[in-house]
Amino acid sequence: MTIRVLLADDQTLVREAFAMLVESAPDMEVVGQAATGRQAVELARTEPADLVVMDIRMPDLDGIEATRRIAADDDLAGVKVLVLTTYDTDENIVDALRAGASGFLVKDTRPAELLDAIRTVAAGEALLSPGPTARLIERFLRSPSAPVAAGPECLSDREREVLTLVARGLNNTEIAESLGLSPLTAKTHVSRTMGKLGVRDRAQLVIVAYESGLVAPGRA
Question: Which GO terms describe its biological process (predicted)?
């Protein structure tokens, strides 16, 4: 299956470079380019995109609000958002995750890593850039935020274990190995957990785990 990618960045050279990179992958195609957040939302509604690569700082409408509008649109339920950040200046990355982004990367990511990230997020997995940026998320998740639709108290003991492992960055195979389950059973638990909590993907599960206190910042 070809992954249909929409690119949103206010810098033309950066956007064109991303477009050339995406088009070089045999399993991807660029279906549109946006220079503002408002254009990104409009294109997401008119072009058959699977994923939006979203810059945060753009004129007219920033990437966080654009992400929020895409995530809130029922007609765009299948569209994932991968946010890019410059790390030192874009500390509102957590707001992007809360708005509905499925993951993020820093802009100095190697080309091959960006392509892998697109594949990962398009497949429904959460992707959080490692190292300092992950610690940035932990620090900002200590701050108060709006309550989630449902908390871990609605989960079974097994589902709480699964949620904790998702928050620690484990994929389905690693969760299965950790809990002595089959990969299919682990995947089923993850899906049921998302359903009970009313979230759209694994990135949102991470947010729930931190904000509910199930996983403490610095100990994930």
Answer: phosphorelay signal transduction system; regulation of DNA-templated transcription
- Concatenated DSSP letters for the chain? -PEEEEEE-S-HHHHHHHHHHHHHSTTEEEEEEESSHHHHHHHHHHS--SEEEEES--SSS-HHHHHHHHHH-GGGTT-EEEEEE-SSS-TTHHHHHHHT--EEEETT--HHHHHHHHHHHHTT--EE--THHHHHHHHHTTS--PPPSS-GGGS-HHHHHHHHHHHTT--HHHHHHHHT--HHHHHHHHHHHHHHHT-SSHHHHHHHHHHTTSS-TT--
Residue 76 and residue 21 in one domain: yes
Q: What are 146-169's pLDDT values in tens digits?
A: 444 456 788 999 999 999 888 877
pLDDT in tens, 90-105: 567 778 878 888 888 8
Is 162 found in the same domain as 134? no
Range of the domain at 178: 152-211
How many structural domains does the chain have? Answer: 2
